[in-house]
Every structure is written in C-alpha cells, then in structure tokens.
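Hi L.,

You mentioned the student needs an example of a multi-chain input paired with its predicted structure. This one should do, with 729 residues in total across all chains.
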Amino acid sequence: MEMGWRWDFAIEILPGMLLATLNTILAAGVGYAIALVVGLLFLVGQRTPFKFVNIINREIVEFIRSTPLLIQLFFVYFVLPQFGITLSAWVCGMITIGLHFGTYLSEVYRGALEGVPKSQWEACRALNFSTIYTYRRIVLPQAFPIAIPGMGNYLVGIFKDTPLLSTIGVAELFHAATAVGGYHYRYLEPYTLVGIIFLTLSIPAAMWVRKLERDVNISQGKIKK
Amino acid sequence: MRKIYKTLTVLFVLLFSISTVNAKTLTERLADGHKLRLGFGTAVPWAYAGDNGEALGFVNMIALTVLEEMGITEHETKVFEWSGLIPGLNADRSDMITGGMYILKSRCANIDFSDPIGVFGDAMLVPKGNPKGIYNYEDIKRTGAKLVTGAGFNTVEAAKKYGVPESQMLLVEGEVGILAAMKAGRADAAVQTWFGGKEHEEKTNGQFEVTDPSKMPKETMNVVGIGFRKGDDKFREAFNAALAKVMGSPKMMERAGKYGYTKAQLLTDPSMTTEWACSTK
Amino acid sequence: MSYFAFLEEHGVTLLLGSVTTIKVLICSIILYVIISMIFGLMRISKNKVIQGIATGYIEFFRGTSLLVQLFWFYYVLPFFGLSLEAFWAGVISLGMNFGAYGAEIVRGGILAVPKGQWEAAHALNFSPAKRIKNIIIPQIFPIILPPAANLTVELLKATALVALVTVVDLTFEAKQINSITWLSAQAFGSALLIYYFMARFALVPFLRWLEVLAARKVGKEHL
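Structure written out for the whole complex:
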C-alpha cells in the first residue's frame, strides 16, 4: 500500500463526500430543530408548579445529560426494535440527538429566563398583565438575545457530533468516509478530507456565533460598540 | 515553573520513545519479545472475542493451531470495526488479520495473504419463507428490494459488480449491524457469508433463513486467507509452511469444528491458490 | 434471562471495562489540564506569534469533530511516523481536543482577575513569570472550576468514543455483550447506568469539593 498522499484518490472520492456532507448538514439541522422543541418541553417541566413533574423532569434531564450520546444512540437503535418499534437509523439518530441536546438547550433557556431582571416580572404583575402577555411581550424578547450564544454554540456542537450517527449506519459524511475507506482499504485521504470539510464548515459557523455573542453583549450594554 | 518544564519534557520523551513506526519485520519483532497481535472483527462463527478478550471462532482456531506449530504460544487480540481491519494492519495496529477475509484482488493490492484456509460461499439472509423469493443479486435488482451488508465486506464489491444500484444498498457495521437492520425491518435481505447467515438463522431461531449458496453466482465462491502486512514475507512463509502441516489435521478440524468448520470447507482444488485468487477475484 | 442473571454473567466484564474508562479519563484529565494552562496563557500573551499559534491550535481542535480527530490519530498518524497504543492515541486526542476548550476557560479566568492584582504585582517588582505563577494563577481557580467541571463531565462522556478504536472500555464491553447475546436493553442500559453513577455520584461531587477547596484557599469561601 502506498504510504504517500494520493491526490488522484482524494479527487476521486471528493464528490461523493461532498454529497454526504449535505446529509450531515441536514441531520444537524433536523436534530437541532427537534432539540429546540424538546428543550422547551424540558423547560416547561422544570417550571411547572407540580412538584412531582419537577422531580421526574429533573431526573430525566440529569440522566440524559450525564450519559454518553454514543450509548444513547446504541440504546435507541438496538432496543426499540426489540419492543416492536422499528425506525430507520436516521429517525433513531434524530430522536436521540433531539433528546440529548434538548437537555442542554433547556438549560440555556433557563439561564436566559433567569437573566431577565426580576423587576421586569414584578412590574408585569403590578400592571396586571396576563401570563401569556408577560411572556410574549416582555420576558421572551429580553430572554431571547441572552439565549442566542448558547443556542448557537449547541448548533455547532450538534454538527460536530453528527459523525457519531455513522456508528448506527446513518449515511452522513463520516460514514461515507469509512465506507469508501473500507472499500479501497485506505483511510488517509478519506479521513483527512473529512477533517478539512469539517474545519471549513465549523470555523465560519463558530465565528458567526461569536459575532452573535458580541452583538448581544452590545445590545445589552455590556460592551461598547 | 522549572518543575513543570521538567515533567513535560520527561512526558514527551517517554511518549515519543514508546514507538515510532517500526521498521523491523514481524519475525524480528517477535524475536525481540513483541507479542503477536491477532486482528479481527465481531463475526460469529468466523472470529470474535470472548468475555476476556480471548480469540474465538474457527479462523482464530486455525490460526492459533498454526502458530502453536510455529512455536508461538503467546498472543494478544484486538477487535476492530470490520472496515478498519486492513488500515489497522497497515498502521501497525495488529500483526495478522483473522477476520475471515476473502482473498480479493483489491485486498491483495494492500496486504498479503497466507495460503487459503478453506473455500467459502456467500448467501442471502431473508425473512422466514423468503417472501420475495430472493436468492442472488439478480433477484435483488428485479424486486427492487433493499439489501443490507457490512461496510468493507467483499459483498459490497460483488453487489456493485452485479449491478445492484446504490439506492438499494444499506451499509452497516459488521455482522451485528446486519442482523440489527434485518430485525428492525430496515432491509428486505442481507448478503453475507454463508456461515454468517447460518449463525443468524440459528440465533433468531429461524425468524430469518439463509438461502442456498449455490444459487449465488459461481464467482462468489471464495477462498479465505490470513492477512499479513506486505514486508512480513519471512513470517508469512513460515506461517504457510506450518499451515500446510496443520491443514486438515485432526487437531485443527476438532478445534475449528467447534465453530462449524467441516470437511466441506477444505480446499480440494489445488489450483485455488492465493496467487490465483489475487489475480482473478 | 432476568436482569439479575444478566448482571451475574456479565457484570464483571462491564466493571472491568469501567476501570479502563476511568484510566482513560484520569490520563486525559491530566493532559487536558496541562494543555489548557499552557494554551490559555499563550492566548493572552502580548507576543503576536505565540498568540497566533495558540489561537490556531484552539480553532483547529474546536472546529473539528472529536471522532474524526480520534480516528485520524489512530489510523492516519502512524504513516507520519507516530504509532501509539490505542489507549494513548485515545488519551492524546481527548486531551488535545478538550485542552482547546479548556484553554478558552483558562483565558476567561485570567481575564476575570481584577486588574488591581496585576498592577499591585507590577508595583511590587514581581517578574512577569512570578506574577503569573504566584498571584494570578491561584486566583483563577474559583472562577474556572465551575465551567471546567462541566467540561470534565463532557470528557467522561467523550471517553466512550475510544471504544471505536479498539480500546476495551465500558462502551466496548457493552457493544461486545450486545453482539454476542443481543440483550441490548440490558447491555446498553447497564452501561448508561454505570456512566450515570460515575458522573453524578463520583465525578461531580469530587469537582464540587475542588471548588470549595479553591474558594477557601483564595479566601472567598462563605463562612
């Protein structure tokens, strides 16, 4: 086996890998969308006045947050069919990512809500605003900017965790690299290309998140423009 | 501050002195006391690891019998994802591949194989009763069925060769992935070695059945060899010499027989050599 | 078979795997702490070159997926002359990856030390090295420990990935048991429980204790 880098091989496999990258982006996007919703559910569970729900919610969130995403993926992929629930690998992956990152996002939401000054809540009560109006017009608009950096960071995080989906057979970028590497028995070019593609995508994304962070801090008056 | 620098330097020196890629051949390293590392995947009954990491499966049994004949009694085992076996061997992660690898032209370009340890065929794994009547690649194409197999398996090349479109292929990780996909109904049929299929049939108590390997294209009858790095020729030749002595012996048949290896797998056609497989398969 | 019977048969294997997980964790923690300190300090250096190198390192390791780095270290690096044992390949890629995140935390901690401290040290004629070592660094601990604690729990979860490069840890054993017995719920469920216990009832309390210790040393503890 040739030890040196082979440009011809790299160019040969590049189109297939770029195509698989689309799958990765799709997976990250869908997983993130699910996580956003799940995060809200966990948040509601945390803030509800029913003590029992609070406790159950907290235990579930702690459990998911403290255990590896990889094992959660295996669990959903292998165990559910044994109970008659057969889902495609893709759906299994989306559910698991949604649940896993949903727990992180619920913490981001919580932090954002707590970042809204208590005086705002009190003023709303004093002015007799309904709960819905309070949230909709006063609290959420103030909480949202605080949440953005965290939400942005986890979007990048999900994107970088998509390779784990390859372990359950989802045909994203890393899976494509392993498949083509396994087919030609060379891992050098496939894995290096994967690394480069990831860098190309996540560095701009990370810079964009940092810009968002800056903008939020400016709008909050924390730093001067 | 100085203490930190000192410890760091020691750490780095230690790390880098552990190894740089070894220019020595396998024979030389074994003489130095290096323990032989068997590399395989999780493919029951071919080769898999036991609870304590011991080498199980008939390919491992044959390999170990040959090694004993060579006077090598100690070994280590390394379990890889199937597609990582050859890259792992070449990256010095193992010393021989006992996965149960078919000798194929594309593989021979990257590693060397021992003399064949037997003749084996592929088969389809289908739900009980074979509702879609699938026996080979043509049937897959005809029925538009979803075919699952392992990444890096010889069957990926074979399916491509017989024209199964990529849209009908599902690639998963090894035997485990194949059975998981079948059980979850993510594929209509799986293609794998006949032994692998038989194991799955037994494991699922007949929920799935393995088809007749003779209904597969003739060319899918393949020979299996033990994989070695190119450059470890001396060791490979010694291995081949010992293999010739051990092949078909009562001891080997008994040990390999525990995992299902029978006389039917023994090589009867002397023209089926490694060179032949490397150039024609 | 009942769960109890499962544990009887496979419990020891899983526990032995956990021991390897813990070994990987401890080694990676040591490495990532060292790297965080070094690159965190480099990041705030006035020297453009040093700062550039640190930024490049951090962006690179934070910008690529850990799994990709791990596979690269394991399968590709040997061709550039460096062939480490799977265990060390895992530890090093974990350490380097988390070191990049840790460096940012360290940087944040250093920047959060009141400017007065720097000025006082300067006024008292401390050399820059002594200033950093004796005044600034001890004060960053209460600040960096909470985010570092989160990062360390992430590290524990990340160790699961080394199973994919042949390291025989808890995840590896769970996969093996699953592939032989197909008792997926028991195998992976037990693994989940063990990780959970390790994180929630061992790692986190230990890190909280460190936080208290650090706060006490700097005199910030509430009596």
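You could point out the following to them. The radius of gyration of chain A is 22 Å. The mean pLDDT of chain A is 88.

Best wishes,
N.
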